[in-house]
Write a structure and sequence with these properties.
By secondary structure, the protein is α+β, with helices and mostly antiparallel strands. About 35% of the residues lie in helices and about 15% in strands. The chain has helices spanning about 45-55, 70-80, 85-100, 155-160, 170-175, 175-185, 195-220; strands spanning about 1-5, 10-20, 25-30, 110-115, 120-125. Helix 3 (about 85-100) crosses helix 7 and helix 6 (about 175-185) packs antiparallel against helix 7. The two termini are about 35 Å apart.
Length: about 220
Amino acid sequence: MKVTLMNKNTPLMSLDIDIKTSYVKEILEIHNKEPMPLSVYSDDWTLLGENFTQWWNGRSIPAVRENMEKEEQLRRAMAHYHVCGGEKFVQQMLCLDFIIMNVDRHWGNFGFIRNVNTLSIERPAPIFDNGNSLWYDMAHIPEHFDKAKTFRKKHRAQIKLVSDFSGINFAALKTVPAQAKAILAENTNLPSDRPEQIALGILKRVRMLERVRDKQRSTPTR
């Protein structure tokens, strides 16, 4: 498979990789050698290919990326790097995003904590960057609006990826709308009816999530 190695928006080199083994079959072109790791670059393209193969195999996910769903890529990556609690974290994050109607949980909006000395991945990072949520750019909350980003384009499809709701306290969740309303009511820049709208929207999403859980419980496993 022919690919171009990038450093952000800067192309470094084009190469032909055996996607199954992650072995560099051929260096096709050098675009910019400066940002490359010092341990990798060589003017000898054969040695460069060998160096890059070793470097890449130490960092890449040992999986065939072609025709693989995003959630499976992430699952394999977490298994490869032995991320403790990764699967549970992702499922709880999807539940949160379902409730708050987060429309922008792209792959730069969640992550994992690395040890600064060993660079090993230790655990999921606390959830951050929830700004594009709670119908933030809408004057009125539409009845059937649904938009997701992490694994699927719609939350109703994405939430089906959650198989374990044991970490979700639904009794506690039902108190969230009132808490949200009280907090938002302190913001004098909001229209007077906005806190109530958002509280009702959250309550509706919590009830929808509860129905998803109940349906999953009643569905026989094969």
